[in-house]
Each structure stands twice: as structure tokens, then as C-alpha cells.
Records
---
Amino acid sequence: MFRKLHEPAEAVTVYVEGKPVVAEPGENLAAVLLRQEAIWSRPTPVKGSRRAPYCMIGVCFDCLARVDGVASVQTCMMPVRDGMTVEHQQRRRCLPS
Amino acid sequence: MSKTDLLIVGAGPAGMTAAITARRYGIGVLVVDDQTAPGGQIWRSVETQAASERGDILGRTYQDGKATTDAFRASGAHYEPRTQLWQVEPGYRAFVSHDGKARTIEAKAIILATGAQERPAPFPGWTLPGVLTVGAAQVLLKTAGQIPAKPVWVAGCGPLPLLYIVQLLNAGGQIAGYLDTTPAGNHWAALQYLPRALRGAGALLKGLAWKAILRHRRVPVIRHVVELEAHGSDRIESLSYRTADGREETVSADHLLVHEGVVPNVHVPLGLGCAVEWRDQQDCYVPVLDPWGETSKAGIFVAGDGAGIAGAKAAQCRGALAAHRLAVQLGYADEQNMLKDASCVQKSLARELALRPFLDTLFRPRSRIFSPTDDTVICRCEEVTAGEIRAMAQIGGCGPNQIKAFTRAGMGPCQGRQCGYTVTRILAELENCPASEIGFYRVRPPLKPVTLGELATLDQEGEVV
Ligand SMILES: Cc1cc2nc3c(=O)[nH]c(=O)nc-3n(C[C@H](O)[C@@H](O)[C@H](O)COP(=O)(O)OP(=O)(O)OC[C@H]3O[C@@H](n4cnc5c(N)ncnc54)[C@H](O)[C@@H]3O)c2cc1C
Ligand code: FES
């Protein structure tokens, strides 16, 4: 688990699997997921093994989640917004070719 | 659709400096970057954090970035944050996406300043939750002000682990231990390049200062680690390591941060069909560039660490040089005057580059990451192991693209950013030939996954796709 060094001066609420969680405007969603007491992770579509954010710069795709109902969002590239919902996703990411 | 003289992709040190320089000539500039604020990797969140307590934790080199973001904001360049480039067609027509909507940009010239990524360094267990890169942990500190809650293990080689350990200690964090994977012979091999490197003594002194801090703060350092493994079922619980002299240990671990250097982000130039070449000293491909950064495609430039790893100062020089050259090409300056302005930038760049042979040799990664054990997952997306790659290669004597077709390695959403080099190196080892003869996956646009919904929005701007 990661912890914040400071008490955020402003706060928004995001819902991680339905649970309200405090987040700070300007930070990205993956940072919030990595602060969860029970480690947040998703099952891979291929073998169902667990994954959590790894690179934080958009090059590993291990931080994918369903955000506000949209699947396969890279949470490390997504700034938090008040009321945002994050859920695990099982579906395979499709690439149009 | 929008039109611009010059499109710059990336607002890190290279892209911002290119924009500032181009604006001085009066060139119309549009900068797109996929982050929320300018700064790139080294200066993530610097605009809001330079003057804060977090800025002090991160140090002077970080805080200094604010001067560049300020100059960039004042330059008159149009800047579009959270906007990602995913395709470029001849002419040039660039395709970008912002908030799930795609659009096109017509540009006379393009500077790709997309930077670097940490080198993929597979070992058994590197996919477990709780294992992150050092760069990832540093991004979390810069952008969210957060650190590992418990003592953290750091494993790797290069300046970034040392810098992050110092920053983490400044922030009141704790290090369980630093598993230094720098190979035993590197120091001796690097010595021959030291005299040249002394031209940039500042950077070397910084490295020595970091090491002194580690000693002073009694960070446990285990040197010459040659093997690393993370264990756990749903997350990392422990790790094992072995040193060159055969010492083995297994210790419990809450988090492990890994780093084995950085490599240029070559996907964009490769996807655009720009020529690349193998650079042995940095164990990576780099785009083929003229002294100004122009690629094999006229009007497309690469600047910054994407042109070959040389650090933020060199990135700024390369950004400036590309803009100087384009000022002449686009008719905003005559060559004589431009050359006068550019000469001091060329000198600064030469000074930065003089450091590289020393640093590259000193921090050359251990060989195991290029030849992982058979049971190591090398393609994180499709979960393909090194053993599966070897088995397939032995049947067919095939190249990276056939390996991709047969094993699915490189077919996932990261498009080979995490397995491309490993596949190349495994094949080179089997064929007993240099990596340069093996090549890399063929990279085709879109350069990042694009949804059908995004593609549909292109129609709304009246374009024929
Ligand atoms: C995770 C990480 C952390 C680092 N931390 C440090 C550090 O603390 N100190 C240090 O000296 N060096 C650091 N480096 C090394 C780094 O490469 C610096 O030398 C410097 O940031 C390079 O500058 P640049 O302008 O070339 O690229 P970058 O700073 O990487 O800037 C490139 C920018 O382009 C954006 N981008 C990439 N692809 C696209 C696309 N397709 N569309 C739109 N935008 C795109 C990126 O998000 C980024 O904002 C780090 C590298 C990494 C990978
Ligand atoms: S953590 Fe790697 S892409 Fe988001």
C-alpha cells in the first residue's frame, strides 16, 4: 500500500467497486487504487492472474479498469473527478485493426 | 481538423524547448501531450509542486523545471494537454485523441518529443501486484505526493534508483534494502571513458552525493545481485535474490520497485516508417537522425530521450536544434543567422553526450534480463513465457513477427512495449547473432489502442478516414 504524505486541502469522492474513497483533485485514478488497504488488482483476461498498476506512464496497460462504465481505461492516465466510479473488468481489450 | 506549421508531440524538456525556440522565430506551433500538465517525466507536476514541500523533497533539478514550464506557457505555442497522438499520414496529417474523441491535425513538420520508457526487465514474479517500476513510484511521489507505507525493496541499476531512494528518504519513507544489480565488471570497464566524462563533472558529483547519502542513512545495500525473483499468489509476499558470489536469500517484501535503465520510445518513429538502428552501447534501437534530429522522413524530427538516452539537458538541446533547423526549412530564418544561434546549443549538447559512454558502460544492465529463465513471463499482456518463445523459435527459425503471430507475444494492448526487446534478444541469443540482425516487431498504427467510438468521432469533423 502507498500512503499520502499530506492531508489533501481539497477532496473529491470516487467509488472503487462501489466503496466511497477520498481522492485529491489533480491526481490520477491509479494513485487512488494503489492507496487502498486491500491491494487493488484485476484478473488478466488470459490466465486470470492478478495485476495492478506497474509503470504509471501508460506503457504496460496493467492498470486497466472500467471507469464510469467505460471498459479498458488506463487509470494511470486518467485524472480523478468527483463521483467517478471504478470497477474491475474481465473483458479482453479489443483493438480495431 | 486544425492546421499548424509545426506539430510537437510531447511537452517534456525536449518538446517544451522546441516550442519555445520555434516561437522565437514566429513559427506557428501546436503541442499535444498525453499528460494533464507540461513537464514530461522528469518534471511531472512541477508547475504546482516546485514551490511546495514536495518540491523540496524532490530536489533542485526538479524545481528548476518550473522555469522551463513558465517559458513554455509564455511562448505563445498552442498547448493541448491529455491529447494523444496515434497515427500520422503523409502530408502530414496527424490523428490525435482527447477524452475519447479523435481528430486530425495538418502540419508542415512534426517534432516527436515522446521521451523514454523504463527498460522492460522481466524476472519471475515481475507481474505480481506490489511490484512496480522505480519510475512509477517516483511518478506517484511527484503527482500524488504518495510513498510506500512500509519499508520498500528497490532493485536495479542506474541513476534513477539512487535518486528515488534519496527522494524517498527525504519524504520520511523507509528502504528495506537496495539490491544493486550493477554487474561487477562495469566500474572497471567504464574507467576508460572517465576523462571524457569529466567535462560534465556536475552529473558525476551528484551520483557520488547520492551514494554518500545512502551510506549515511545506513540503507542496506546488497551489491552485484544477479538473480531476482518475486513470490506470492495474488500479490508479492517475499522475494529472493542471488549475488555474483553465490549468496542467496529470501526475505519478506511488501513492495518491490525495479529499474534497469530507460530506452527511447521508438514505437512512434517505427509506426511512421522512420528508419531505426541498433545502438549496442545502450542496448536499444534509436531512430536514424541527422545532426539536427531529422529522421529518414523529411520534415519529421525526433528530439529528446526518444532520440537516444542522454538526459533532460540534452533533451532540451535537441529540442532547440530541431526547432532551429525547421526555422530555415519553413522559411522563417536564413541559414547563416540560424547557425550562429544554434552553435552554443551544439556545444552544450556535445558536453552532455560526452558523459554517455561512461554512464552507459557503468550502468549497462545485467545479462539475465535479456535472457530470462524459461518460466519467466515476458509478454505481460498475453502472458507468454521465455520458454514458449524459445520453443517456437527452435521449430521455425523465425523472426520477431512470426513469433508474434505464433505465440501472441506483442499482440496485446501494450503492442510490444514490454516484450519487444526481450523477444529480439532471445532470438539473437538462439541464432548466435547480434540483436541488430534480428530487428524488432513491425509496428503499425494505431500507436495506442483506439476504440471504434473514437474512430466514429472522426466522421463528425467531416473527414474521410
Ligand atoms: C518514469 C520515468 C521517470 C523519470 N524520472 C527522471 C528524473 O526524475 N530525473 C531525470 O533526470 N530523468 C528522469 N527520467 C529520464 C527522462 O527520460 C528525462 O531524461 C527527460 O524527462 C526526457 O525528456 P524528454 O522531453 O525527452 O521526454 P519526456 O520527459 O518523457 O516527455 C515526453 C512527453 O511526451 C508524452 N507522450 C509520449 N507519447 C505520446 C503520444 N503518443 N501522444 C502524446 N504525448 C505523448 C509523455 O507523456 C511525456 O509527457 C525519467 C524517465 C522515466 C521513463
Ligand atoms: S500503469 Fe502501466 S499503463 Fe497504467
---
Amino acid sequence: MSPSTMVQAIQSGLYEALAQHDEVIVLGEDVGKNGGVFRATEGLWAQFGDERVIDTPLSEAAIIGASIGMAINGLKPVAEIQFMGFIYPAMEQIVTHMARLRTRTQGAYPATVVVRVPYGGGIRAPELHCDSTESLFTHIPGIKVVTPSTPKDAKGLLLAAIRDPDPVLFLEPMQLYRSIKEEIPAGWYEIPIGEARRVCEGDDLTLISWGTMVPVTEAAAKQALQLGISCEVIDLRSLSPIDEETIIQSVKKTGRAMIIHEAPKTAGLGAEITSIINEQAFLYLEAPVKRVTGYDAPVPMYALEDTYRPHQERVLKAIQEVMSF
Amino acid sequence: MLGQLEKDWIQYVSIEGQLTEAGAAIWEEMSDRDKKQFYQWMVYIRSFDRRAILLQRQGRIGTYAPLEGQEAAQVGSAYALTAQDFVFPSYREHGVALVQGMPLTQIFLYWMGRVEGCKAPTDVRVLPPAVPIATQIPHAVGAAWASKLKKEKEIAIAYFGDGATSEGDFHEACNFSGVFQVPVILFCQNNGYAISVPFSRQSASETVAEKAKAYNFPGYRVDGNDVLAVYDVTKRAIERARRGEGPTLIEAVTYRKGSHTTADDARRYRPQAEVDEWIKERDPIARYRKLLVLDGLLDEREDEDWRKECDEKIDQAIREAESLTPLPPEHVFTHLFAQLSKQEKAQQAELREER
Ligand SMILES: Cc1ncc(C[n+]2csc(CCOP(=O)(O)OP(=O)(O)O)c2C)c(N)n1
Ligand SMILES: [Mg+2]
């Protein structure tokens, strides 16, 4: 098998799901004939036909709402929202129904929908194509939120999401769609939801990030090592639920923690992780938990995107600040 | 396919450049200046559009949404507006913006990912392009409604595509327009596709125009590549709105000759024969040019001079846009609020160090 990009890995995961489970339906804008605007559904329409891979009219509310209905009646929809900035028309369906249906029907009708959403910046995309509003969704009880940072994790997490008995929001970091290649296993395999990945081990400081920020964090950690600072990097992967154990174990070892995300700082997921650390490892801390995040301003148009999003030097500087506290 | 296209539409200039009877009556009343301006605007917009694609290929602007093929729909409708009317465009309406007085430099800046491109001069009532589909339509309804409540004469126009008619925002905006009898023009450029999805997949209605019926206001379907028809239909809708008779939905049937954006490849989903037909037979500029020639209104020398002038204006705008000093990183906070909070000021200071 030749190495795959993340977008190919996602396509491969969708292929497996469609091939192995008749109830799986892929639907969304331009996912059929066009193979998706990022080609994540390339070839699936030709292979599985118009009733398994469905080009829908342009309506996010109906894509998600109808997916919920399909799930109620025994299908397993994997819906695509073209960009995270365009998921908001479906917010009502996601928040008031998808997340609550299991509770409201007392287990009779879980809304077992997977929603795939490209997210994040870094590709000089037009306005509003770069949102990273994951914490809007992690704040909602009743939906799981995951995001891979490698091709292998992408396919495994996607298949886990598809087999999951509950709704899952699957965020795809656009910047990483084609930037990394690696061998991925053929066939069906799963990366369990709720488990973080330890990217590299270290003793001085725990760096926690996800999606697009993982490579940035890794690069900063490598640089830090040259300065004699040993960082442990954790790719959270599962944003809801959070793998508290992996985080806490690591922080107890290193005594320091930093969270890196491209979403704005205020009420971002970094705040939640900081609280988890404070609640469970406070006495182990040698420095306050630090956040390196996007700024509390709307994601700018791309001319200013590189300084808006956390970059390697900023992460490195923050590492040094934590170490010299 | 064309039979269905032409269903119940208004056309004043045939593809051979011949005026219909109704068209001739309107043509009669128009000044030579207006007649020439239609042409000049369309030529200018096409030159700009082609240049923008080149700039994108050279990496000098980002992903760009071309409009070639839709010049008549944009020029005809915008030409019917006054400077006081509010325009709520989507991302493909640079032609409309230009006619309404938006400087070309701004339009280049926008596609260079620079927020300066969103801002119109104070006397130009064109809002920034709405990227989330259909979301600008309720704004136009609100702006028009405000005119009505304030007893003022300006109207508002929303521009959107055929794909937008599937969004709730479109239908909710239509409903408000009808209920409150708002002086708004809902202008749909039906270019046959929403990225790869053909209109037949977008809606089970045969036309966009007929959707107005459900909201109880008029809907017109017009040959969107006929600048005269678009102009006249829009003008009449605007007059009606100004008289306080409420909203109108206009469907301009057109075609985007190129891909959805420079990041798209339309060959994946459109039959070549269809594309060829639109390019060769139904081009809005070629048709109008024939009419001007037949009417003795087109001077070849003048035309050549105008094309040169367009190129110079475009060169100049590119120079201006490219030489404009980049905004500093902390600019992301500059217009966040009228007054920044302490925390925001601190973050702004942090960003200042990025310079
Ligand atoms: C709410 C929303 N969903 C999806 C998109 C992605 N998208 C951008 S343009 C487009 C198709 C729009 O088609 P149409 O309304 O016909 O306008 P056209 O591009 O043809 O001018 C889509 C799906 C978006 N911008 N906004
Ligand atoms: Mg369209």
C-alpha cells in the first residue's frame, strides 16, 4: 500500500463504511459527482450510486435534520458540511435535536449521525472558510467531538465515529488534508473515541493540542529540546469526551502544562483543560497552566491569518516562559 | 434543455442581436449614452475578471470566484439602481459592486485576503460580499423595511444564486418581504449550478421565479444574458417598490462560463456541449455587441480605445492594491468594538509584538 494523505485516508474510511454497512449513507453538498470540494468522497458516487452517496440541495439545516430522521429510521448517515463556517444554519438541529434525542426518547432513538466538517485555517482560504469553533460543540452535552491530526488517525477515528452509537462531530483539519503522508492500514480499523495520543514523551512540560496545531506544537517541542527543554506532546484527538487520564498522568510527571489551540482564547477548550488539570493535579504544578491560542477577534481574512493563529515561535516563547516561571 | 430554460422568460434581445417588439419599444426610449454604458461596463468587468484569474494563477491573489458569462445580469440590474439604494451582494457580484461605485482597488484587496477590500467609500451603499449562502437576503429585507418605516425612498436589493434558494434564510426572507410588503428586490442569478449541483437537483420547481407565488408577490424570469431585459425588469421592480407596492423576485437565467472558483474544476460535473453552447451561442457581450453594430452605435476605434482604457484602469488598481501598506497584525482588534475591553487591549498589545 502506498502512503496516504489525510483526505485519502478519510475517503478510504468512507469507502469501507459504505462497502461493509448497507445502512451507511453519505450525504451533503457536492459530495457525489464532484467527489466533495476537497475530494474526500472521490469515487464513492460512481461506486455506490445515487442512493448511497447523495448530492443534496444547499441547506445545512435540512442535511442535518434529515440525517437525524434517517437515523431514527434505521440508516447511518455520514453527513458532510462543506466548511465549519457554514455549519451554523444547522446549529438548531445539532443542539436541540441531535444532542438530545437519546435523552428525550429515553434511549429509544439515539441520533446516530456522523457530521464531517473541514475546519481551521492555514490554507489562505476566502473569508469565513477558516473557523475553528469546536468549543461551541464541546459545550453541548450529548454529542462527541473528535479531530485527527494524522492520516492513520483520520481513518481510524472516522470508522470509530461511524460505529459509535451516538452522534459524532468529526472535524477535519483542512491544512493537514494533504500536508502529511503515511502508511495506513487497509480495511476496517478503529481509533477509540476518548483516547488521546502521546506524540512524544518528555519530562519538563506537557503540551496539549489537536488538529492543525499538532504539527506546530511538535515543531516547537523539537526546537525546545535543543534548548534543553523536554516536552511531552499530547494530541487530544477526542475533544469531547476528553481523555483526562492521559493528560493528568502526563502533568503529574512533568509538573507543567500548556494548551495550544487556534480557536479564540476566551471560553475555548483550553480553559476546560486548565480546569481539569487544576482539579486533578494542582499540587503537582510548578507553574500556572498556560494557553497559546487564537486571539479574541473574528478570524481575519487570510492576509493576517499567520499572526492570528498560534505559530511555532509563539509556542516556543510560551514554553520558555513556563519554564522560567 | 434550452426549451426548459426559456420557459416563461422575458427576452428583449435575441441571441442574434435582434430586438423583440417589446424590446424595440424600450430601446427607443433609451439614450445612446445608456446603451453604450451597458456595453462598456460589461467589457470592463470581463477584462477585470479575466485579469483576476491570471493574478490568482500567479499567486498574487487568493482563491477567486469568476463571473464571466454573468455580466449582463449584473450590469443590467445594477444600472437600474440609484446610489442611495442598498446592495447586499454575495461573493460573485464584483460587477454589481463596480457599477455601484465600488473602487476596483477594493475588489482586488478583498481577493488578496485584505479586510480593506470589504469597506466601501462612504457614498457607496454596497455591503461586503456575503460568503455564507443566502444570509444576506434577510439583511436586504431589513434595510428595505427600514426605508419603509422611515418613509424614505431608497430600496434594497439582495443578490444571490440558485443554490441560495434552498436555504431557509431565502424562504424566511421571502416570507417577511411578503408579510410586511417591503420595498426589496430579491435578485437571483440562476447560473444553473451551485458548485457541482445542477438546478434540477437544487429544486423540484421548474423555475426560481415561480417560488414568489407562494409568498404572494411577483416573480419574473428573465433572460439573464440579455442586458436590456434585465435592466428593464429590474427597473420596473424598483419603481414598483418605490411606489410602496412591495417586493419582487427576479430570476435572471444565466451561466458561469468558468469554474465555481479558481479552486474548482467545472469539467468534473458539466457536459462540455452545454458549456460550449453557452460560450459560443449565448454570450451576453457578443449578443449585445451585435445589437449595437446593427444600430450603428458601435465604433470600432472607440471600442478599442475603451478596452485599452479598461486595461489601464485595471493595471492602476492592481498597482494600488499591491502597493498598499499591509495592515499590522494587531489590526484584527481595531474595529472589533467601539471600545475594547482591558483583556482585548492586552491581546492587541501582544499582537503588536508580532510586527
Ligand atoms: C451556508 C453555506 N453553505 C455552503 C457554502 C459553500 N458554498 C459556497 S458557494 C456554494 C454554491 C452556491 O451556489 P449558488 O447559490 O447557485 O451561487 P453561485 O456560486 O452559482 O453564484 C456553496 C455550496 C457556503 N458558502 N455557505
Ligand atoms: Mg448558481
